[in-house]
Amino acid sequence: MAEVVWSPAPGVLFEEPETARGLSFHISCSVVVDPVALEPAPTVTGYRAALTPEPGAPVLQVSVSASGINVTSAALAGLFGIEFIDYWIDGRVVQVKRWEDLPEAAQEVVEFRPSRTSQKTYTLSAAALLSDGTESRAGYQCTIQQDWTAGRDRLRREVDARRNPPRR
To answer: Rounded to whole angstroms, how far apart are CA atoms 17 and 14?
Structure first.
């Protein structure tokens, strides 16, 4: 029986903060030929890959080619939502769940609560199809850590916009 070797070795593919940009990973495998084997070693004829759970935002792209599996990301931001934003308008406090729903007329941001989720981990299941009809499987973990920078920066912009409105 021939041995299949994955590159990189199965396990952790990456652990990156959500601020990471320009990620690119190539996964492939090769068949190690046993010099004393009577039968010829199989060859890799193709690949399959699946990412689970599916990310809620299009931050990770997985593509398969004849040479292997590619995992890429232009930017990881967008996976961690917010719990809520409370703002003051016309003498009352109103709550929204997205920055896009915060009206320009809001007089003050009273409270902003980011997601409490500190990281999200995805499993990439990889399979190499072999010419003898079998397949070799490998698993990789892709972990994205929230760093709260995007929420902090957006909160600053929104508060500054209400405290220093543009002059007309």
So the answer is: 10
Domains and CATH numbers, the chain: 3-73+120-144 (2.60.40.10)
Instruction: Name the residue with tokens 């997985």.
Output: 62
Angle value at C-alpha 18, between 15 and 20, nearest 5 degrees: 75
Q: Round to whole Å and give the CA distance between 130 and 47.
A: 9
3 state DSSP class of 25: strand
End-to-end CA distance of the chain: 78
Residues 6+ apart with CB under 8 A from 37: 2
Measured between alpha carbons, how far is 167 from 98 in angstroms, rounded to an integer? 27
pLDDT digits (tens, 9 = 90+) for 52-108: 999 888 899 999 999 999 999 999 988 888 899 999 899 999 999 988 898 888 888
Paired tokens of 73: 């990301």
State the pTM of this model.
Answer: 0.79
Q: Count the alpha carbons within 13 Å of 81 in the hemisphere toward its beta carbon.
A: 10
